[in-house]
Amino acid sequence: MASLRETKVGGWWKRPVMDESPTDRGNLAKAKRRIKQEQQKIQLREFLKQNRFQGVDVSKDGKLYPIHVAAHLGDFDLVRLLLRAGADPEQEIPGSGGGGKAIDIAYAADVMGSHQKIIDLLQAPVKILPVRGLRKLVNQHKVSL
After folding, report:
1. Domain range annotation of the chain
2. Which of 84, 71, 87 is nearest to 119 (CA)?
3. Whole-angstrom Cα distance, residue 41 to residue 124?
4. What are the phi and psi torsion angles at 60 (to 5°)?
5. 120: which of 32, 68, 74, 103 lies 20 to 30 Å off by Cα?
6. Do the bridges between strand 17-19 and strand 8-9 make them parallel or antiparallel, or are there none, so unpaired?
């Protein structure tokens, strides 16, 4: 349990100092993670709402998907959030003739490396999964870690 203590230095009282136990630090770290996750959810919802998307894998007017717009904008964090939320990086824009994946859009919008982090993320053979998704995958295939 955290407690306040005062110390006297050279005849003067110092400000109270918070003593933290490892449990308090662990709870603080969990709280910070939860806050960050909530902020990311809000950011994702706002992006979908502003761009009139109904979901992370639902196209707008049968053409663009959220991941295409985020890749074009060059927003690495948003692309990563969309991937974590289940967006398909292989989704093509209908009628694009094979050049309508998010990575193709990032390449086209790249100016002197401006979209390089997104291109690297989308090229990665590793799929981004939240911990729950990993647990579900492990349980489905009965693999032990």
Report:
1. 19-141
2. 71
3. 24
4. -100, 120
5. 32
6. unpaired
Q: pLDDT of 40-88, one tens digit each?
A: 999 999 999 999 999 998 888 878 899 999 999 999 999 999 998 989 8
> Given the structure tokens 């009139």, which residue do they identify?
52
Residue type, 134: L
CA distance linking residue 83 with residue 57, whole number of Å: 10
Question: Nearest Cα to 63, choosing from 74, 51, 79, 73?
Answer: 51
Helix, coil or strand: residue 12: strand
What is d(CA 15, CA 36) in angstroms, rounded to the nearest whole number? 30
pTM (2 d.p.): 0.67
Length of the chain: 145
| Amino acid code (one letter) for 13 | W
Of 8, 84, 15, nearest in space to 43 by CA: 84
Encoded tokens for 111: 């100016």
Residue 135, token pair as written in the block: 């647990």
Q: Which CATH number is 19-141 given? A: 1.25.40.20
